[in-house]
């Protein structure tokens, strides 16, 4: 016999469901909230998931910034090796950041902090990938947040 969402929503212990079938746990939890069946909601896991959502959004910003910065540095400091792949990566990861900001405008307040975390990593990776000595790349990020996200900004282009 196949169980329906309503059957799952009757489950007393959704903690086990969380461990066994995450997506089903999400569906059941949503249904319980919609039904205002608050006493059956797995509050511990729900609160943890909500907290993790914020962490994932900030992590996505940092990760995408590293990639944009990496390719901007390579673009600027190895102009003879510029490729469509670098340009495409810059555009793609700028778009990802901008999409995050559209969905969560409060992340704009986090961009400078994320940049301070991302730049040293991008700088090191640029050195590793290009074979250029680390001191060739500026210690402080040479780009403003606005430039990093600007589709018209390409360092070293005149």
Question: Can you offer a commentary on this structure?
Answer:
The protein has seven helices and no strands. The protein has 158 residues and is mostly helical. The protein has two domains: 5-40, no CATH class; 53-148, no CATH class. The longest helix has 35 residues, at 43-77. The termini are far apart.
Features:
158 residues; mainly alpha; 2 domains; elongated
User: What's the alpha carbon Rg, rounded to whole Å?
Assistant: 22 Å
**Helical segment tally?**
7
Strand content: under 5%
The total of beta strands comes to 0
Total individual domains: 2
What does the average pLDDT come to?
A: 90
How much helix is in the residues? 55-70%
Low-confidence stretches: none
How would a textbook summarize the main sheet?
Answer: none
In one word, what is the shape? elongated
One letter per element, helices H and strands E, the order comes to HHHHHHH
Distance between the termini: 69 Å
Estimated structural class: mainly alpha
Task: Produce a short descriptive summary.
The chain is mostly helical.
List the helices and strands and how they pair.
Layout: H1 5-9, H2 14-20, H3 22-34, H4 43-77, H5 84-103, H6 111-130, H7 145-148
